[in-house]
Write a structure and sequence with these properties.
Elements (H helix, E strand, L loop, with lengths): L2 H20 L33 E4 L7 H4 L20 H13 L9 E4 L11 E5 L8 H12 L3 E7 L1 H15 L6 E2 L37 E6 L5 E7 L3 H6 L8 H20 L1
Parallel strand pairs: 1-2, 1-3, 3-4, 4-7
Antiparallel strand pairs: 5-6, 6-7
Helix pairs in contact: 4-5
Length: 279
């Protein structure tokens, strides 16, 4: 083989290998959370078993409204865990994954996968992506662009646990960077997302564990179920404003937490998963 042809062939093989490797999911890794340390929530026996669906939790940097860091807590490197994105983690993720396995025929992995938008094409391996406390996050412009591309390619993003006018303003600004030309609107009761598995016309505010006494957090008095649609009428972003579905999953096995909140939280999450995988 001529030298130039050999070099070209090797270059092609190298590019092909890189293209294949780019979409190989990263290995499962545990992180310390703001509430639970590694090992505090035991790994399920089948944690290494591959599956059809995985709870993909979005990692992100905190923003200026990050309540933890503003008070001098959990201000470390967000890529290492134990910062804002690990709220309820991993207890909520594993409880919810267990519910998916029990209540649907979806082949769900028993453990979560933490996804960093800066990690190449990793996010494209997961059709459903979840983030908590998005009224306090600080996604970068590059991460916003990656999230936009992921969603336009068919991904689904569930944004949860943002409360009141200030947090809503923070989240709205970030989503305008993701989709400057697409409005956030209230999802109508008739939308398929509320009827994929469960009929959920009767929705109510899901209160977080720490705010049961008040019945709300900050000035977030009324629950809103909002979304961003693509050009074909598919919901790309589902937003639970003034509700804390993550807490409803995290505390689902605790008698002190009202069952009605976990019941609705589980059903909404399952509807969102099935919708994401069928629309």
């Amino acid at each position: 083989m001529k030298p130039l042809l050999l070099i070209a062939s090797l270059a092609f093989i190298g590019c092909l290998y890189a293209a294949v490797q780019r979409n190989v999911p990263l290995p499962f890794r545990q992180y310390d959370g703001v509430e639970y340390s590694v090992g505090e929530i035991p790994l399920p026996a089948d944690a290494d078993v591959k599956s059809e669906w995985t709870f993909a939790r979005l990692m992100y940097p905190g923003g200026d409204n990050d309540g933890y860091c503003r008070n001098g807590r959990f201000c470390g490197d967000w890529r290492l865990g134990r910062t804002l994105w690990t709220q309820d983690f991993p207890r909520a993720d594993r409880h919810f994954s267990l519910a998916v396995r029990r209540l649907t025929r979806v082949d769900a992995r028993s453990v979560e996968q933490c996804v960093n938008l800066d990690a190449g094409d990793e996010v494209y391996n997961y059709p459903w992506l979840y983030a908590v406390q998005v009224g306090e996050w600080g996604i970068t412009n590059a991460q916003a662009a990656k999230l936009r591309d992921y969603l336009l390619r068919g991904g689904f993003f569930m944004a949860d646990d943002l409360h009141g006018t200030v947090e809503w303003a923070v989240f709205q600004e970030s989503m305008q960077r993701v989709f400057p030309d697409r409005p956030i609107i209230d999802i109508p009761d008739s939308d398929a997302i509320f009827h994929t598995v469960y009929d959920l016309d009767d929705r109510y505010q899901v209160v977080g564990h720490e705010h049961l006494r008040e019945g709300h957090k900050l000035d977030g008095y009324v629950a809103h179920w909002r979304g961003i649609y693509d050009d074909k009428g598919r919901i790309m972003v589902a937003i639970s404003a003034n509700s804390d579905l993550g807490d409803s999953w995290e505390w689902a096995d605790d008698p002190s937490y009202p069952e009605k909140f976990s019941a609705l939280g589980m059903r909404l999450g399952i509807n969102y998963i099935v919708y994401a995988m069928t629309h």
